[in-house]
Amino acid sequence: MTQTLHVQIKSADRSDLEDRLKAIDAGEDVDPSEPTLSIENLETFGRVFRSTNLELLEAIVEHEPESIRELARLVDRNPPEVLENVNELADYGLVELEENGRAKRPVVWYDEIDADLPLTTKSGQGPKANA
Questions:
Q1: How many helices (H) and strands (E) does the chain have?
Q2: Which residue segment(s) compose the domain that 51 sits in?
Q3: Which Pfam families match (predicted)?
Q4: 39 with 9: CB under 8 angstroms?
């Protein structure tokens, strides 16, 4: 079964989080929401999803490397550079790093990304790359 991460360009919307948590605490049934990552602006989106990072995500999903060093070998790059990119992806929740002995194993729980890239803002001025 395909697991999809939905990505959108907008500030993180946590307005319904408190209501959802209260409903859960009260024992009410709450529909699970789709996993969504909000990226604050187009510039950040471009940095996070640049080709080198996408290559890493694809290699992690396809090969399930046991370490950053193995991932670096798979993409033919230097381990310190790969570690820097993987840490950036982990900061955004796109990769998890599991302890694997002395190594850290990169893990991705989804196998598809669905990006919502609006061409206009609500004011009609278009997305701002340098917001």
A1: 5, 5
A2: 4-116
A3: HVO_A0114 (PF25212)
A4: yes
β-pair partners for 105: 98
Q: Residue 97: which pLDDT band, with cuts at 50, 70 and 90?
A: very high
Q: For residues 48 and 14, give the distance between their C-alpha atoms in angstroms, rounded to a whole number.
A: 21
- pTM (2 decimals)? 0.74
Do residues 81 and 47 lie in contact, with contact meaning Cβ atoms separated by under 8 Å?
A: no
**Domain-located, residue 17:** yes
Note the pLDDT tens digit of each residue in 10-45: 765 555 556 655 665 687 765 656 778 888 888 999
Tally Cβ neighbours within 10 Å of residue 44.
Answer: 14
Backbone angles phi, psi at 87, to 5 degrees: -65, -40
What pLDDT is attached to residue 10?
77
Question: Where residue 100 sits, what CATH number does that domain have?
Answer: 1.10.10.10
Separation CA 66–CA 106 (nearest Å) = 7
- What type of residue sits at position 80? P
Contact 3, 109 (CB under 8 A): yes
Asked whether residue 107 is domain-assigned, the answer is yes
